[in-house]
Specification:
Layout (H helix, E strand, L loop, with lengths): L2 E8 L2 E7 L5 E7 L3 H11 L3 H8 L6 E5 L2 E9 L10 H4 E9 L2 E6 L4 H12 L6 H14 L2 H16 L7 H29 L9 H64 L7 H4 L3 H22 L5
Parallel strand pairs: 3-7
Antiparallel strand pairs: 1-2, 2-3, 4-5, 5-6, 6-7
Length: 313
Amino acid sequence: MIFTTSNVKWGMITVILSDSVTKQPLWIDLCEPTNEEIDKIAVEYGLPLSFIADCHGTGQLPKFERLGTTTLIIVRSFDEAAQPTETSVREVTRKLGLILGDRFLITFHRHQQIFLTNFFSQATESKGPVYLQKILLELLLAAVETFHAPIEDSEAVIHQFEERLTEDDLSVDLKRLLVTKSRLLVLKRMLWHTLNATQKYVPSSDINRPLSLDLTERITNQMAFADGLVDSINNALNIRLSLSAYETNRVIRILTLFSAIFMPLTFIVGIYGMNFDFMPELHHPYGYAGVWMLMVSTTTAIFLWFKSNRWIK
């Protein structure tokens, strides 16, 4: 189908494309629509009640639904306004709904996103033939592409943590890494749901089949990228825990060696600290020096024994 581009707004309803002959709106966009506006569009285009419920909702996961000749696809794109500390689905992603019917396409979303603004601009500036199925697939691909930047940012956080892995104070970096892991898991889960939803849509035109395959491949690549980064985080955390355990064992080892050396000395001092009336060594002219020689030789013997067993390096 060949449509003309337009940019007519009816309240929160924007007509992106219209028929070149009848001027009938064929692609309309609903940004932050009210319930009345959604109901108006639903009545005008004869949308099923289940589709209307999905339009009203805000927290849906990606899904696919088809009733008759009308198809509903809901995906979630990454929200570029999300704060670095936010990790929940509603904080990190935004819903994008697409309803494709016979000679009409309806897109709805609660917040305007940069990638949508750019996509709409490209669509209105296009001078060649425009096909609604192709627009739907390209929109889905654009939504999936929004996940690439945050996943790359997560990779930079992981590299920064790995560079400082052997430093002592990593509390701030560790907290940031854990937040990054939580965000990656959310993105990976959304991509998985998106893959399940988009794979159920089979374009009726063979011309659009390669674009559908590209969409599936891109989602799979993004999932593999996120999955690999999650594994890298787990490996980095395990290495950090191993280093911490090694340092703890080294300290305990040193304390154990000192305890083993001073234990016999404490025993000897304890004996000569007793208040007995008769202790021959106390009155011997070399008794004091003999006790010192005994303690020194005991300490030396223990040290050499540890050294021979390679407990001291």
